[in-house]
Amino acid sequence: MADVKPELSRLGELAAGLRPHQHLCFIYETQEERFASAVPFLGSGLERGEKCLYVADEHNGPALLEALRKTGTDVNRYLRGGALLLATKPYAASDSDPDEWIGVLSQSIEGAGDDRFSGMKTWLGEMTWALAEKTAPETLIEFEAKVNHFIRDHEVKALCLYDRHRFSPEFLLGVIRTHPLVVYGALICENPYYVPPEELLKPDQPSREVDRLLNNMFASQRAFDQLRALAGRLQSVREEERAKVAREIHDELGQALTAIKIDFASLLRDPHQDPALASSPRSQSIVKLLDQAIQSVRRIGTELRPGILDDMGLAAALEWAAEDFQTRTGTRCEISLPDVDLRLEAERATALLRIFQETLTNIARHADATQVQVRFAKENDNLILEVRDNGKGMREDQLSGKSSLGILGMRERVLLLGGTLTISSTLGSGTTVRVQVPNSTPSAE
Predict the structure, then answer these.
(1) Taking a C-beta distance cutoff of 8 angstroms, is the pair 128, 60 a contact?
(2) 269-273, long-range: CB within 8 Å, 24+ apart, which pairs?
């Protein structure tokens, strides 16, 4: 079974939004998934005035048309007017010749450009018809490959539906290879395993496919490396901007507020002023607001870029973050630090602090913990940051972090440093986050 379950509403949006010259396959697992993609795809084509061909076997066709009727579509009117063509045995008379099948499809779009239709065509193929006709797998795969040529040259969009429970895995591998786009997990995916028809149908196909696969691997790795480099650069730029904003807040806004407070206090002590002014509720309120504003400026500046990280290093910054967490949440936080100060590159130190802060944020939001234990150490040539809480723990599906931007961000930071992030948890017994990154000591200037 598939690991990714599609969101049914998203399937409908994707199907309704397909464009001409697109040839997709959707390997579905349930009838709900089938209807969620097929009904909007066919219905949207009819609403736009397109000529639609629905290829199905005798069992699948009526059920889908009934589902289409339940959406308010007047199926019978479209059938009578020729906008919707239903073919239950489309290629039985063509003697298993894919070229003749393409001819049948070509006939189906005749008249699509007249005054009754918009000129575009929609094809929906319930490919279980091939099972009913006992079509040879290699014949159907050849047909799918030739459909790509046809769709490229005509104003056609096609969605091929394959029931995963009725087609063998070996056959479905061929299906994937003949579709440039694949619907999976409520996404339209560019298919890196797609084999162009001019390659698939040539006698030297294996040799060509070796070249294509090697080129795909090279291009994929290069793109991955470029994205990772870009992500690293974006992280660096963001930290630089945060440090700049923190300095400006401290130097400009913080100093301005402090000067206002000093001037106001001086004004209140002016002998020419009414002595009662200094003790008046309004004056006291202004002083209190100024104090709160100054504290807010310090807090915002510290959150943007803790000055202690630059001034005293990572160990001191981790200790400060742990104490701040304990003060804010009331959760006891014990931290173990190296006996000697570790000199780290600024990028490495910043990343580890941000990972620690994100971990504490997750504990505060989700763990219901009463105690947190932190260990930061150097082991061999690696830096270890381990955070353990005694909270309610996490489910297995939560540990991957696929739905958590915070965890995804932590993993990305660790990968940029060439390290690993491990999250282990047991429901009712807390969670442990362990970060291991290579130690890189900055060279002496």
Answers:
(1) yes
(2) none
Q: How far is CA 65 from CA 12, 38, 273, 363, 414, in A?
A: 16, 10, 88, 51, 51
* DSSP letter, residue 270: -
The SS3 assignment for 82 reads coil
CA atoms within 13 A on the CB side of 189: 15
User: What are the distances in angstroms from CA 55 to CA 20, 59, 129, 313?
Assistant: 18, 12, 8, 68
Q: How many CA atoms lie within 13 A of 195 on its CB side?
A: 25
pLDDT at residue 1, rounded to an integer: 44
Q: Would the pLDDT of 443 be above 50?
A: no
Going by DSSP bridges, is the β-strand pair 431-438/420-425 parallel, antiparallel, or unpaired? Answer: antiparallel
CA distances from 44 to 75, 93, 99 (A): 13, 31, 29
Residue 437 Cα distances to 199, 228, 339, 352, angstroms: 45, 17, 19, 9
Residue 420: the pLDDT is: 93
Q: Which residue has the tokens 């803790």?
A: 306
Identify the pLDDT of residue 96. Answer: 67
- Side-chain-side CA neighbours of residue 47 (13 Å): 12
The mean per-residue pLDDT over the stretch 273-283 comes to: 78
Helix (H) or strand (E) holding 176: helix 169-177
DSSP code of residue 367: I
**Rg for the chain (alpha carbons), in Å?**
32
What residues does 438 pair with on adjacent strands? 382
Average pLDDT, the chain: 83
- What would the two tokens of residue 100 be? 């003749």
Sorted by sequence, the CB contacts under 8 Å of residue 204 that are 6+ apart come out as none
pLDDT of residue 210: 83
Token look-up 């353990």 returns: 388
Nearest to 407 by CA among 368, 348, 363, 347: 363
The 10s digit of each residue's pLDDT in 103-149 is 877 877 776 666 666 666 888 888 887 786 677 888 888 888 888 88
pLDDT in tens, 49-88: 888 889 887 777 888 999 999 999 999 999 998 889 888 7
C-alpha 445/C-alpha 2 separation (Å) is: 54
Higher pLDDT: 368 or 277? It is 368
User: What is the Cα–Cα distance from 441 to 151, expressed in whole angstroms?
Assistant: 58
Residues 6 or more apart whose Cβ sits within 8 Å of residue 332: 326, 370, 371, 372
- How far is Cα 394 from Cα 363, in angstroms, rounded to an integer? 11
pTM above 0.85, yes or no: no
Report yes or no: 319 and 335 within 8 Å, Cβ to Cβ.
yes
